[in-house]
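does this look right to u?? iron/sulfur cluster version
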Amino acid sequence: MVSKRIVLTFPHKLVDQPIVYKLVKDFDLVFNILQAKITPQEEGIMVLELKGKKENYAEGIKYLTSAGVKIQPLNQDVSRDENKCTHCGACVTICPTGALYTDKKTMKVIFDADKCIACELCVKACPPRAMIVKL
Ligand code: SF4
Ligand code: SF4
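got this back:
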């Protein structure tokens, strides 16, 4: 089983095509859209978590490439220095994926790395610089 987070860039001619649907139907892959930005007449960018059997994953990627979709791995990782975080909450409303959220019981800010798409918005917003980009 393979599970990877990738960035897909669609040229404008493919923006309204059921490309991602075909990954499920023809290649038995499971996807989770982490972020999507589609501009009609221009291009679309989608951050996906894609899972499936190794051979199906490879075939799915081959299909995307042959269809004209540019694929880049999401290889930047963002982590949090727990010693620096003051749980001020400044990052919570900025995070587009809900990877940073406030636990209602403890009122502490939780970082869920699995939901992070490494957009780095929190890095600049964090007063004590607790959010770190690992290259
Ligand atoms: S902005 Fe920084 S210090 Fe404040 S809760 Fe978020 S990670 Fe913690
Ligand atoms: S980099 Fe920060 S703001 Fe962006 S998704 Fe990850 S935790 Fe949220």
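Residues 80, 85-91, 100, 109, 125-126, 128, 130-131 surround iron/sulfur cluster (ligand 1) (CB under 6 Å). idk if thats expected tbh
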